[in-house]
């Protein structure tokens, strides 16, 4: 048997802090073969990203204190800088989590890919003129070839119009397009190993399915190894050949994805899989892991999961945990292994009150009990157009079309109801939310609060403004990093009509924190000191400051691991039950929407193409676009049908197609679809904007089942 492309053995990576050494990676061992995709799975803070950076020798300010990293026969932990430069970016490439931080905003996409190509061709030895970008002294023929190669790479990633795309800047690309550009840059050097750190976290299901398909294609066509880091169990299940489960910087379980994800043997793996929202039914309390991850300061002299494990025994506290090989490919670190199958921590089983996972009690849905006759908030036939920033003379010279971000959209939310808003990136979800909150003014149509028409936020009364709370998409960016949490909450509590004492403000802040299950001690900490889950709770507390009637939540759980996600979803349900607040829940994670929402609206190219009860919409979608979105959801079960990418891209908002906006991508499109704009039709309890919705996705058989759906897969 040949040696693996990458072998990591007993890796220890630490951060030196004033409070002691942080053991971010604490003895991890695994390997990646050529032509194989290996997944790194675990909660936030488990050491996944630090492990990846250590492999690339980009671990600073941390340091590797022990262990070996062998890449294609070269020991990287002792390699000199020139060797690392030769390997890094040539034989080994990394795709980082946020493409906006990877791409330089001041250079065109093609220029950045061309630079990667040239660095690879010159083996990292750039000429000074090339490095400085001196036009007359550059090797023009070589750069012309590099630009051609950049266009080829963009075309290979299915970037539309790759030549014009090559001249575009990062901000002109959508999230999915930026991720494709980053992949193209990483592949410019034709690497043997690609490390992808959460490459699909912020992407909608169709774009995610497309990126994952490309990773599998790269593995098959180029025989490269891929290390895929993700907290999404479905992504790992449908993409990887093997999976490594990390917790507390240690490998808990590793083996073939079919074995680990369908028959997990480590208590942590079982509990983590049970936290997936796909394992929970709507109305059922989400399963989350009690307790907190271990303190990484000082390392672990015992099993890192022992304090949260329902199977723990005194032996689990004594010394290092042995590694047990179930077979040559499947190993786990557990004193009590092998554990018998147990319904209490087996994924997909409903449990009552196990020690390690919160019980599943039926959520009391306020929405169905206290729905008001007049919606709390309502958008009626709203549209929003944006014009490019042009000078007065430019506006006189040209008749440049405006971009229609939202088109004739109607949406309402009742007391205690959750309305999910879903669709691909750039479909207008966030713009519609800003119209509801008053951050933008509709070009046409109207927004009503309790039946009263309202304008933008500056024109709304104080009482109207306090009726709506907002949790922003990039929650960390929504807090002032210089202010402690208490000050941010105190500012949100300010009432221009009253004068309060410092003691009263402190009590109010403490009350807000306690309402989202946080300790009042959090008030003295800064945003950078809080985890993603904690900061999401603080954002919800801030939105609750004035007892709103409705809260707009823009991607509130994207980027969170399944365990943290479960606690936030439980919290949202608790808050809704306690305060009767309505939610507008924007998300690209359709499983989360299925779990939480009472009704769902599906947006495409600025239009709502289908809306109706969540259960009905997810079980029997009527619009072909909704059907395509659902087909793109990855299953947690390896071997299930892989997610199907939706071919093509949404239309340019400045150049919409005639007729139905979806017809260029629709597998059921007819001539009528290309010529005429469809109106809403009622199908059961749903409203659908499609000429032949039942025929597009298949009507129910006599027994209530759905026939096999037609269309491209």
From TrEMBL:
Region Disordered: start-end pairs: 280-299, 335-375, 633-663, 675-713
Compositionally biased residues, Basic and acidic residues: 362-372, 639-655, 675-687
Domain ABC transporter positions: 6-273, 377-630
Predominant localisation class: membrane
GO CC annotation: plasma membrane
Residue stretches spanning the membrane: none
Sections of the chain in a coiled coil: none
Protein name: Oligopeptide/dipeptide ABC transporter, ATPase subunit
Gene source species: Halococcus salifodinae DSM 8989
Origin organism lineage: Archaea, Methanobacteriati, Methanobacteriota, Stenosarchaea group, Halobacteria
